[in-house]
Write a structure and sequence with these properties.
It is built from 3 helices and 3 strands; from the N terminus they run βααββα. The chain is an alpha+beta fold. It has a 3-stranded antiparallel β-sheet with strand order 1-3-2. β2 and β3 form a beta hairpin.
Length: 82
Amino acid sequence: MSEETEVLTVEGLAKLLGRTEASIREGIRRGVPWLPKSFKMGNRHCWLKEDVRRFLREYRDGKHLTPTRGRRRKEPPPLRLA
């Protein structure tokens, strides 16, 4: 009988996201945007399940995207029929 915990470690997050533990660890090291923000308990990286679920919902809804920057395009001139 396993007890359901609210804190995920690397192995739990890997199962939840369908990735390997190595990819999660590499993502932590590189600071990739597809990982939710973690915190450390002792020497272990941890995530709250609630935070991971919120992160995934926001990712699904496109809230993680930053608006693109650059100058606005002008309206193209209309075509003249000869």
